[in-house]
Each structure stands twice: as C-alpha cells, then as structure tokens.
Amino acid sequence: PGPDSIGAIALSHSGGGAAAQTCGLVELEPIKVAEIVKNRPSWLQDCRRLEILATFNADRGGLVEIVHTQMYAPTTLAASRDFWTLRYTCCLEDGSLVICERSLTAGQGVQAIPITPGFVRTEILPSGYLIRPCEHGGSMVIVVDDMNFKVLRHLRSVARERAEEGLVGNNQTALLRGFSHRLVRGFNDAVNCFTDDGWISIISDGPSTVSVCMNPSPNCRRIGQSDSLSSISPVGGGIICAKASILLQGVAPASFVRFMQEHRTAWTELDGGSCQVTTSRTSTSSALRGGKYSSVQVLQP
C-alpha cells in the first residue's frame, strides 16, 4: 500500500475479530513518532491512564514493557475497561522502529491481578507500529490496530504545528487542539465519575435514569459517611454533574449519529441566548461569548 491507505482483514481464528491497517507519511523523525505513539493518553482522549509497571531489556537493544491501561466508559450504560499488555520496542537493521503490543492472558499472571473497582478486564488484539525513516526526512508509519487510527491524525497535527511555530508566534492550531483535548477528557471524567478522582455519588437511581455526582474542590470540606448535602461546605466551590441516560429501542447508532449531525447547531451552539457562560477566567469567557472559537471548530477534532 502507498501513503494514506487503509484496509481491514477479518480474522477467522482466535475467536474472530478484525485487524485494520493504515499507512501514512508523517513529517517527524522516527524517534519522535515512537515517543508520541507510546504516550497513548496524549492523543487518545478515551484513554484515562497508562502506567508502565516494569521494563526489561531484550536482544538487539529491544525493550519489553508491562503496561496497564485504563479506558473511559463511552456512555453511562457501559463499564470502564482496563487491560494489561506486553509492549515490545526494537530497531531493525534498516533503521526502522517496531512497536508491538498484545494483551497478557490469564496464564501469564493477569488472573491473579485484582480488577480495579468500576472497571471490566478486557483484552485487545495484537497491534503495533512500523516506523520507517524516509530519505528526504519524515517517517512512513504503518499502523495495525483493532481499536482506532487517531494516532495518525495526531502525528500529522504535531508535525504541522512544529512547522508553523517558526512562521507564527501564536499557534492557534495548538491552542485549539489542547482545548479540544481537555474538553473531551473533562466530559469523560464527568461521565465516569471515578472515586479516586474525588467524585462522590449524591443521587443514583440506576444507569438508565438520573444520577448526580459531585467533585468538591480542595477548599471544600470532605463529605463523610452521610449522603446529606448539609455536610458540604457552602463556600469553596466544586463541580456537580447531573447525568441522564435513556435506551432508545429500535434506533440504529448510525441513524442517531446522522440525526445529531444534521441538527448540530441546535445542541452545540455556545452563543445561544438561553446559555450563559460564567467563569472566573474572563479571557475564556469573553472568547466563548465573542465567538472566537465556534462550537463546530471545538467539537470537530
């Protein structure tokens, strides 16, 4: 395959599944590409946390890592996922870098590892990256992954921002990408409401109705065993998140996504008269009210 190609192969063995491959040219050196793709939380907003628990040296200068990854739940009707993987990185004789990753099975010690509360242990198909240096600079990146290909888009955005840094002093593209990244991760935090992030359940009527959670700021007094709101300090602030979920019977996901896209302005407009943005950071507030970043620009990445 040439640059900017994508394909998929159905797997009939090992319980079935699908392996997808994409290939693209990136204006970054192979070492920089490897550094970015291994830092999954920086480009995959659905990745909550990635921890390297152990490293071992391998033959030919290779490196083996034991990695624990936590993934956000996509909706309130699903569970958060985590998986344990072995990741192998090595350099080939032609200068190419290879990064391979696959799940650890129950026979490899994972069964004895306790599952974090709120998570479901899952596995991923073998995946990885082949990063080939190009003669005139840059890298040819081949991605084999059963999850997504957001990394290739992120690599190109980083390369574009590096090229723009010397031309424009204020890089609006990097600012917008960083704001969008924080927006999505903040939404994922609110949907999942992990207790180790400080979220406390106030009202919970089940996953398919309404629930309310609170994340008090460090200035707030911690809530004790009581569920009463009277135990919360009235000053100091914090975040209260109300979540409502509904199961739509007989509605295909593609039809619902198409409907939301066609009516995007009805639910994403930040400048609407019925919506008032209040914040202690006047620069952010004025930017939103003044339409500096439209809702389509923010949500599109």
TrEMBL record:
InterPro entries: HD-Zip_III, START-like_dom_sf, START_lipid-bd_dom. It comes from the Eukaryota. Residues 40-150 form the START domain. Keywords: DNA-binding, Homeobox. GO terms for molecular function: DNA binding; DNA-binding transcription factor activity; lipid binding. This is Class III homeodomain-leucine zipper protein 4.
